[in-house]
Fold these 4 entries.
Entry 1:
Amino acid sequence: MTPRNPNLLDISIPMAATTPEWPGDQPFHCGWTCRRESGESVNLAAITTSFHVGTHADAPLHVHSAWPASEALELEAFVGPARVVALPADWPVSQDLDVMHVIDLLGGIVPLRVLLRTGHTVASGAFPADWPCLTRDAAEWLSNQGLRLWGVDAPSVDRRESKSLDVHHALLGHNTFVLENLDLREVTPGAYELVAPPLSVHGADAAPVRALLRSVVRG
């Protein structure tokens, strides 16, 4: 995280060869189709990658073949006031967040956008063994309370070994979007303005995101 000014924080994990991909997924690779050194007029790069490398927004299609693809990601969900919250450093990795945990974490008020720091992130340079996540009941409760966006620093809003992906289904199935692979290591919990529009990719199960937080100036 290298912000250019203290009021604008880049919380993105880059799409890069050094960014750990989900085990078994397509890693990021950037190659060249044209080089000036070879007599071409320009340098042209081409990439191969999974859209789940680095910070990204999952489309509903990711977990259900009949649900909308990446072009249906709603910009309004990814831009606007957001609340950053953090789990205590001693939070057990095996402990998921139920409804009461979420109420305590948010102080009883559910904002439109929440970004959760678990401390289990690829921003550290390695793919984490596991991470805490919401219970399905908590995810459904948040959606019913009007949550539009749930973001996490972890690689997924579900557990690493989950096959049912209950949290994805509970959120994306109720018009609540998700951000994954955020870098929240240097972010103080509190209120911010989030600017994290997904790239305009069509027909995919996810889209890359450049996620920024702007400090809220209280006058």
Entry 2:
Amino acid sequence: MTQYRKGLVLDFGGVLTTPLLPAALAFEKREGLAEGTLLAGLHLDPEGVRLTEELERGTLTQTEWNEAAGRLLGIPPDGLMGRIFAGLRPEPALIAAAAAARRAGVKVGILSNSVGLAPWNLYDGYELERLYDAVVVSEVHGTRKPEPGMYRLVLDGLGLRAEECVFVDDTEQYLPPAAELGFATVHAVDPARTVAALEALLGIPLTGDGPHRATARRRDA
């Protein structure tokens, strides 16, 4: 008999939101920057990598990051993080799939590397504490993906083992550490493909079905 997973762990930015890259490219265009400026300055430059990792751990505030990253990129720092990701929107297919999974009895958690919570809060309006069973944001705990302790925090919150869970992230490098712990993993590239992969791993329909049919499918599995 197929052993379907009982828990679902979702990254936030790029999974429950629209993709990060188009938002970043739109920011570069608005600011008159050459395409790829953010990638080069924040993800390839050692100083930019250090700044972002410290932000994710909570050892640097978002305001401090804005100032330092603004200097690095040669642009005004005011509200920089919020300006970069101003184009992000909720991803309805994954939000609906997560809700359908919960209705069917799957525990659903959020596991997110923080971009700071103030003055701009990426998570505003998503009601994470109400809609999900466990929410782990890196800066609150002083750790970050891909460190194993980060994944264990959300497992503790869900009360499940990694072997019982699926982990979804749009950043491919964060998947192997989760797989080593026992998670099934899904690389979020296209919402429809991600939802289809989750339906196969969880054994429930996540689109176009009400809670009663989904629950019945889990009982029959």
Entry 3:
Amino acid sequence: MTRLTARFWVDAYLARLRFQDIPAFVTSHGDDTAGAVLVKLNTLDGKASAFHRTYDLMTGSRRWQELAKGSEQEVDASIRRQRDFDPDLWVIEVEDRAGRHLLDEPGLD
């Protein structure tokens, strides 16, 4: 099975968010081809969550899992630690008071 490049996936995700009028920004540009992607959801009330994609070895499926949740400062610190560990990491910040990130929709796994 052919995998999408990280850049292609990020561009498609940002377009999908734009169609729903959900603001999102690339805050860290990772490796275009094979960089991992982390999504920060900022609910604009001082709280945030960070999501990363996991792979289930038993089923071969991918899904988005919450990596960190709490105050925006705590989530930002967690993201910094991830960036220190993986400099090729993409970070996308989604800003939505209703908590929409669209990661649970078909096609984003």
Entry 4:
Amino acid sequence: MTETNFKVALLSGAAAGVSVDLSLFPLDTIKTRLQSQQGFLKAGGFRGIYSGLLPVVIGSAPTAALFFCTYETTKTMIRNTMGENWATASHMMGASLGEVSACLLRVPVEVVK
């Protein structure tokens, strides 16, 4: 993988992680409050639905970036080594190794969160 492709994967992954959290974090907060035994309004209602977003974004950007960098690197290495006949396997191995590497970072971030 070229240096340019690595940078693109790194920045694209970080942007994807931040985008997902910015859009889904408030929905997750609302869902949690709806499930609260106190009731939705006593649990906070719609106030502060972005409260606590910063630690999540700080953790998700590098996690998603790590996934995409690992995925792209693995996919490229397998295709360069084994040939285009291994295209499907390169995607599967890239995604698997990408998820394993991302989990090495994601799990400690979730524990802290």
